[in-house]
Structures are given as C-alpha cells and as structure tokens.
Amino acid sequence: MKKWRNMPKKVERKPVEVPEELRYTIAIHEAGHAIVHVELFKNIEIEEISIASDTEMGRYIRYGCRQPKFFTKEELFNLMVRNYAGKAAEEVILHQITAGAINDLQESSEIAYNMVTRYGMGDTLASQTSDKLYNSVLIESSMNQIENLCQKAYNKSKDIVTRYQFEIERLAELIAEKQRITKNEIEIFLSEYFKKT
Q1: Most distant CA pair in the chain: distance in Å?
Q2: Whether 156 contacts 146, CB under 8 Å
Q3: pLDDT per residue over 69-88, tens digit each?
Q4: What is the per-residue pLDDT across 84-138, written as a single tens digit (0 to 9) for each?
C-alpha cells in the first residue's frame, strides 16, 4: 500500500471575536438580504441566518429548498435583486458601502450575463455558439444590456430596502445580538414585524 507523506494537517478554525460596531454593519447587510428575500420569494422560507465567526462558512443565510425546475426571467431577476440587497441596505441605512458585497455583485453580474447572452432573455434572441469570434462580438454588443439589467435590479433592491428599513434595522439588531438565529426565531420575528401579504 502506497504511503502518503507530508499530508497537510487539518487546520482548526479558531473563533474570532467580531467587534460590536462591525457586527452591526454585517447584520444590516444580512438583514437586507433576508427582508428582500421575504418580499420576493414568499414560498421559500429562511432556515437560518448567521454572522458568527466560529463557523466554517462565516456569515451566511440558508434558504429553504425550492422544487427543481427551470428559472423564469422574473425569478432570475429577483435573485439579482436579492443579491444586491446587502449592498443596498448598507447604502440606504448606514450611508456607506463595504467590500462585503463582492460575491453578491459577481453572482448578479453572472446571472445578467447568462440571461442576455445564453438564455435569450435580452433584447434579441442571439445566444453564444461554439464560434469564439461571434461570441466576443455578441458579448461586446450586449454589455449595455447587462449593465442596465444590473442597475435595474439594484434600483429595485434599494426601493424594497427603503420601504422596509424599519424591519431591516430591527432584524439587524436581533442578528447582531444573537449572531445566529434559527428558522423558528425568524418566523417569530416576521410574524411580529413583517406583515406578509
């Protein structure tokens, strides 16, 4: 049997205390995602919200499962809106923007890119092919559509955040205090502060 040497040892993650002022900023970001999700995806529950630094995933929101199917144009657009909600909450409520939205921005840009250049959800039905030259021309001609789609999604996200600023602030206080809240705690909060229609 072959012996493996110099195998890397598993590095244990040590809890890092998040400063209180930073904790609230992160909580506002995640609360923005959560409340916008509730507004746009009423049939998909939030399972957990965490900003605890002692988890492997770090900060995250875990959403319930949806039935596997093809995404519609509206659903993809709403995913972009939800992705932008953390950044929107920082801007609207804290009047500042952190680098914490980097993954959200990348994911939304990728969704918009695919909608326009692959899924036929742009102004034309043109889609990428195996021809690299054609693809490069298509992408270049589609950039304005992609940018406009991203801006439209961000504007909608800011509108929702502005409308539910009070609820986002209250949820952020709960997240900052507990650092990890469960599905049951989220449901109690929503029933008290957020009137679902």
Answers
A1: 64
A2: no
A3: 788 999 999 999 999 999 99
A4: 999 999 999 999 999 989 999 999 999 999 999 889 898 887 777 777 777 787 8
Fold of 20-193: Methane Monooxygenase Hydroxylase; Chain G, domain 1 (1.20.58)
**By CB neighbour count within 10 A (0-12 exposed, 13-18 middle, 19+ buried), where does 181 fall?**
buried
> Which residues does 86 contact at the CB level (< 8 Å), separation at least 6?
29, 30, 32, 33, 100, 101, 104
Ordered by start, the domain boundaries in the chain are: 20-193
Residues 6+ apart with CB under 8 A from 31: 49, 89, 168, 169, 171, 172, 175
**Residues tagged active-site:** 30
pTM: 0.84
